[in-house]
Design a protein that fits this description.
The structure is a single chain. This protein is of the alpha/beta class. It is built from 8 helices and 9 strands. Strand 1 (2-7), helix 1 and strand 2 (32-37) form a beta-alpha-beta unit. The protein is elongated, with a radius of gyration of 21 Å. It binds adenine. Residues 86-88, 112, 131-133, 135-137, 140, 143 line the site of adenine.
Length: 228
């Protein structure tokens, strides 16, 4: 899989893909992540990528030309299954969407900045608009990093222990149960006895009931919402 991210502030994405699981996915050749500066495609002599909005409101709007040229040049090289625009008014991200995106093809992610992109980019070039939550970030870059991270960790082979992505919160519509490690007692705080019983079936049953209880307490909406 290949993910191409278009931004006017590529440096914001220097960190998120340089370590840990996403780094491992790249090192293993399972995913390629390319961050591009939209400015590189600007034909303006000052490399401008934004302009004042029609209608006279405050703020600047990202212009069509460099974005269209960037997307066309990427598409001329390979196929993409989606061109995603990260925006607070997009469809709200959930694990089911991430699961789908991880098994589709290559992706282009467009990060908005300033007041966002000219609506005609959204109308003619974007196939999917995604928000990572009901709050406004300074731009789409951190949202693209979140989406990329969530997708990459699901690509088969990226996480060493295949089971572990499947036991994440949300994968079965439930929050994950609590986890414990050694020592069995520290500072007078004890690991629940059942986890040390060696009775695999009883442990599984306990973990399941903990997951259900935690979900009921913290996210009862997950029992009614169609989030997978
Ligand atoms: N850009 C700014 N805020 C955003 C959000 N919440 N989700 C996705 N993109 C954004």
């Amino acid at each position: 899989m290949r993910i191409d991210i278009l931004t006017v502030v590529p440096r914001l994405l220097d960190g998120p893909f340089a370590d840990s699981i996403v780094r491992r996915g790249q090192d293993k050749g399972l995913v390629e992540i390319h961050v591009h500066n939209i400015r590189d495609w600007s034909t303006d002599k000052h490399k401008k990528v934004d302009d004042v909005p029609f209608g006279g409101n405050a703020g600047m709007v990202m212009t069509i030309q460099p974005i269209l040229d960037a997307i066309e040049s990427l598409k001329s090289e390979r196929n993409y299954s989606d061109v995603i625009y990260l925006t607070p008014d997009g469809e709200r991200l959930h694990q089911g969407m991430v699961n789908q995106l991880s098994i589709r093809g290559n992706l282009i992610m467009l990060c908005g900045h300033y007041k966002g992109v000219d609506q005609r980019v959204r109308d003619h070039l974007i196939t999917r608009e995604i928000s990572i939550g009901d709050y406004v970030l300074s731009g789409g870059e951190l949202a693209a990093a979140v989406l990329t991270d969530a997708i990459v960790r699901l690509i088969p082979g990226v996480i060493g222990d295949e089971q572990s992505a499947l036991t994440d919160s949300f994968q079965d519509g439930l929050l994950a149960p609590p986890v414990y490690t050694r020592p069995a007692e520290y500072n007078g705080w004890k690991v629940p006895e059942i986890l040390r019983s060696g009775d695999h079936a009883a442990v599984q049953k306990w973990l399941e009931s903990e997951a259900i209880e935690r979900t009921q307490q913290r996210r009862p909406d997950l029992f009614s919402e169609d989030s997978l």
